[in-house]
Amino acid sequence: MFENIEKAEEGINRMGFKYDEVVKRPALGVVSGRIKVYDENNKLVKTHEVPHNEVTEQFYILLARLCRAPDEPEGGLTFMAVGSGDPSWDITNPPAPTGTETELVAEIARKPISSITFVDIDGTPSITPTRWIDVLTTFGPGEGTGSIMEIGTFGGDTEINPGAYDELVSVIHQPLKIKGASETFTIELRFQFGA
């Protein structure tokens, strides 16, 4: 067991992070994001900014697994899901995530991540690896329709259908957004690794 912890520490340090800082005070997460809403004619009709997310404990476990053996989990970030949240939540000010979540409260749709792109500090796509990635997923007409108050990013061995292998690595609770049956939501999240 300690050997695996040491390997995770070495891997995190090789990536330019300090293991103690990553474990004690995370500097990881979604630093910005938005939902672009398109109508049935694929015309952009509005953009919603999303609040800062909470990176979950499962994220750090996945990071350690990838450092130890990149081929052992099936992937890094693999799926994005939307959910309606808890019916008791204030629709204008839901509670902040805690980081201990292992699933969305009320998942309504899950899709494979469409693209992951390295970007620089200004958001310009980069052909070389950086500390920032843009993660994009599109929920088309008839997908994820209804009330949306939570967004989750999954990784590792997660499958398309919710189940025992889910690895929820980040979660956002947001004020209520309604997705119409004919609308398309494109969710763009920027992850930052390190302060």
- Count of discrete alpha- or pi-helical segments spanning 4 or more residues: 3
CA-to-CA gap between the ends?
Answer: 29 Å
Q: Structural class, please?
A: alpha+beta
For the sheet with most strands, the description reads: 5 strands, antiparallel
Order of helices and strands: HHEEEHEEEEEEE
Taking pLDDT < 50 over at least 5 consecutive residues as the criterion, the unreliable ranges are 15-26
**What general form does the structure show?**
globular
Please, what is the average pLDDT?
82
* Helix content estimate: 10-25%
| Oligomer category | single chain
Rg computed from alpha carbons, rounded to a whole number of angstroms? 17 Å
When the domains are counted, the total is 1
Number of strands: 10
Keywords:
single chain, 195 residues, alpha+beta, 5-stranded antiparallel β-sheet, 3 helices, globular
Can you describe what's shown?
The structure is a single chain. This protein is of the alpha+beta class and 195 residues long. The chain has one domain (26-193). The chain has helices at residues 2-14, 19-24, 57-68; strands at 28-38, 44-49, 54-55, 77-83, 107-112, 115-119, 132-139, 146-155, 168-179, 184-193. A five-stranded antiparallel β-sheet has the order 2-1-10-7-6, with no helix packed on it. The protein has a five-stranded antiparallel β-sheet with strand order 3-9-8-4-5. The longest helix has 13 residues, at 2-14. The protein is globular and about 45 Å long. The protein starts with a helix and ends with a strand. Mean pLDDT is 82; it is low at 15-26.
